[in-house]
UniProtKB/TrEMBL annotation:
Matching InterPro entries: Beta-lactam/transpept, Beta-lactam/transpept-like, MecA_N, PBP_dimer, PBP_dimer_sf, PCN-bd_Tpept
GO cellular component: plasma membrane
Region forming the signal peptide: 1-23
Location of this chain's protein in the cell: Membrane
Coiled-coil annotated residue ranges, if any: none
Cross-referenced PANTHER family: PENICILLIN-BINDING PROTEIN 4B (PTHR30627:SF24), PEPTIDOGLYCAN D,D-TRANSPEPTIDASE (PTHR30627)
Stretches assigned to the NTF2-like N-terminal transpeptidase domain: 57-142
Compositionally biased spans, kind Low complexity: 538-553
Protein name: Penicillin-binding protein
Length: 646
């Protein structure tokens, strides 16, 4: 009997241990809560299981509940999971919701809701779904609705003095108001307005006819202050045609710094898709240039109201957010100099640019592209061989070998390097050949004299000298830019070509202006363009912040810079751009450049001029020019003569 009691006791203990072990092995509800939070964040709860209905059915209900929120979705996390102490099969997940409802990249609607959980027959946790899991006051048939309101004006892009460069300006929206068109004259009026506005009459007429009976069909938008091409009187003479006063974000003129500043208009499908809910159809947004790059800063954020709308049409506000104005973007541009530069380039048929920098500050004053650039950013992004303007870097490297501006160098009419013939430019003065001072070789741009330095100036030394002038050194400009490229290794004819700015050497007009500014100040200059910007995403290069910086000031010394300035002055007093000696004001220092390109014979040439005057460094570039002195020289002269003098 005692043995039987002992056996029963052992069996009872074993059974109790088995029951405890099974309970301990059951999964906790935490994983189910985390999976639900992940699913709600993406409006797809396919990874969760439910006490009633399928995940697909819940997804369909979610789609209805969120239809009024547009593309905006919450970030959902698990705040806590509490198991019911009286029921091992029950728990409650508390979910934390964070919504960015105005597209400013920060959560502005935060709340918590609860989701009951039940353990299923197989031990897995199931969600007891109801609309209140999404928001606690939601019931069957309700939906959340986001409404943007109180739209605010877009902030301005400012010049260096804090005055608007690009902002809201009065315009006329010219088009056909269909309710105002007399019966039977719709096609006639549309065709007449199209002719007046320079549009395709058939296409515009079809657009008008396809629009609704109450539509206003815009033909063109014209600055209110413009004299034509369409006058209000001309418009009003057409039955049903109207000129509606409005505002658009515009620069002073259509051409003013267009490639840099960009344009503003209705958000494209691509911008909306990439905006992560910040933009919706019909929104105004930056479409290109700084307007697009700094769109979020300039737009600010609209006011937003979130309501719960019931099936019977009743609406209850659950959250409101006041609009926040955008922040103006200040540039370093000088509007007078920008206008001057663009007027100087107005008649140049090929791609061209003028970049002006204030050496004492590194601030960029002009980013001008000629009409031949066809809207492309030649000034900042062009990649071209610099030709003899690069002899500023070669001369610096020669100075570092012990050569001075008075050292005698050999300037033969031509030179052969590893079987390749190099010559001076056609028309090179015979009097400046033979044994001449480096100053004279620089002033007249003797190719062969600089090629003769190939044994004393290595490619590595050349790259280092160029970097000390800022060529090839990236800076946080605040927008996309090409700062130049100088190979650290090259041999034979490739190294020889590098010494005269050919071969694999590439610069932009910006890069050459930076080199000039560095020579002017006696230390490497880091250029700046934006003073207070926060770029959207990764669209600024090399980084989205806008504090201009270079890794270090470089190794350019004041004495080296003074020697370069003396040689650049000789280019004006005795070299190829003596016309710049006529410019009033401080003495002008310069360096010309002609760079061959293409496979034609004779080859086509880029024309360059780099000039310094007072606290101004200017690079002029013409893509298809003659010599730097003949194509670039007159443009530089016109620009410098137009610079205001106090």
């Amino acid at each position: 009997m005692g043995k039987n009691r002992a056996t029963v006791s052992v069996l009872a203990a074993a059974l109790a241990f088995t029951l405890v072990s099974c309970s301990a092995d059951k999964p906790a509800p935490d994983d189910a809560a985390a999976e639900l939070a992940r699913g709600l964040s993406g409006a797809d709860v396919s990874g969760s299981a439910f006490t009633a209905g399928t995940a697909a059915e819940v997804n369909t209900e979610l789609e209805t509940l969120l239809a009024g929120m547009g593309p905006v979705r919450p970030a959902v996390t698990v705040a806590s999971v509490d198991e019911d102490p009286g029921d091992d099969d029950a728990a409650t997940a508390r979910l934390a919701y964070a919504w960015d409802v105005n597209g400013d990249s920060t959560p502005d609607w935060n709340y918590e809701s609860t989701a009951p959980l039940r353990r299923g027959d197989d031990g897995a946790w199931l969600v007891e779904w109801s609309p209140s899991v999404l928001f606690d006051s939601l019931q069957d048939g309700d939906k959340l609705v986001r409404t943007a309101n109180a739209l605010i004006p877009r902030a301005d892009i400012l010049d260096r003095n804090g005055k608007p460069l690009m902002g809201a300006r009065p315009v006329l929206r010219i088009g056909i108001s269909k309710p105002d068109v007399p019966e039977g004259l719709q096609a006639t009026s549309a065709a007449a307005l199209a002719e007046l506005a320079g549009l395709d009459p058939a296409a515009y007429t079809a657009q008008v006819e396809a629009s609704g009976p109450e539509a206003f069909v815009e033909a063109i938008v014209q600055r209110a202050e413009a004299e034509g091409p369409v006058t209000v009187a001309d418009v009003e003479a057409i039955p049903g045609a109207v000129a509606l006063p409005s505002e658009r974000v515009l620069a002073p003129t259509r051409e003013f710094a267009r490639a840099l500043l960009g344009t503003v208009g209705e958000a494209t499908a691509e911008l909306i898709e990439n905006s992560e809910g910040r933009l919706a159809p019909g929104d105004t947004a930056g479409l290109s240039g700084l307007q697009q790059q700094y769109d979020e800063q300039l737009r600010g954020s609209d006011g937003v109201e979130i309501t719960v709308e019931s099936a019977d049409g009743a609406s209850t506000s659950v959250m409101t957010l006041d609009p926040e104005p955008g922040t103006s973007l200040q540039t370093t541009l000088d509007p007078g100099l920008q206008t001057l530069a663009e007027s100087v380039l107005a008649d140049e048929p090929s791609a061209s640019a003028i970049v002006a920098i204030q050496p004492s500050t590194g601030e960029i004053l002009t980013v001008a592209n000629g009409p031949g650039s066809e809207g492309q950013q030649t000034a900042l992004l062009g990649q071209y061989p610099p030709g003899s303007t690069f002899k500023t870097a070669t001369a610096l490297a020669m100075l570092r070998t012990g050569t001075t501006e008075e050292t005698t160098v050999q300037c033969p009419a031509e030179l052969t390097v590893d079987g390749r013939r190099f010559a001076n430019v056609p028309g090179y003065p015979a009097a400046a050949t033979g044994d001449i001072p480096l100053r004279t070789a620089f002033a007249n741009s003797c190719n062969t004299a600089f090629l003769n330095a190939r044994d004393s100036v290595s490619q590595q030394n050349l790259a280092a000298a160029a970097a000390d002038l800022g060529i090839g050194v990236e800076a946080s400009l605040g927008t996309l830019a090409f700062f130049g490229s100088v190979p650290a290794a090259a041999e034979g004819t490739a190294h020889a070509a590098s010494l005269i700015g050919q071969g694999e050497i590439l610069v932009s007009p910006l890069a050459m202006a930076v080199a000039g500014a560095s020579i002017s100040t006696g230390e490497r200059v880091a250029p700046s363009l934006i003073r207070n910007g926060t770029a959207d995403g990764d669209s600024a290069a090399p980084s989205p912040d806008t504090t201009s910086s270079a890794a270090a000031p470089g190794n350019l010394t004041p004495a080296e810079a003074e020697s370069l300035r003396q040689m650049m002055r000789a280019v004006v007093t005795e070299g190829g751009v003596q016309m710049l000696g006529e410019v009033p004001g401080d003495p002008v220092l310069a360096k010309t450049g002609t760079a061959e390109f293409g496979s034609e014979y004779p080859p086509q040439t880029h024309a360059w001029v780099l000039a310094l005057q007072g606290d101004l460094a200017v690079a002029v570039f013409v893509e298809q020019g003659e010599r730097g002195s003949t194509s670039g020289g007159p443009l530089m002269k016109a620009f410098l003569e137009g610079v205001p003098r106090g």
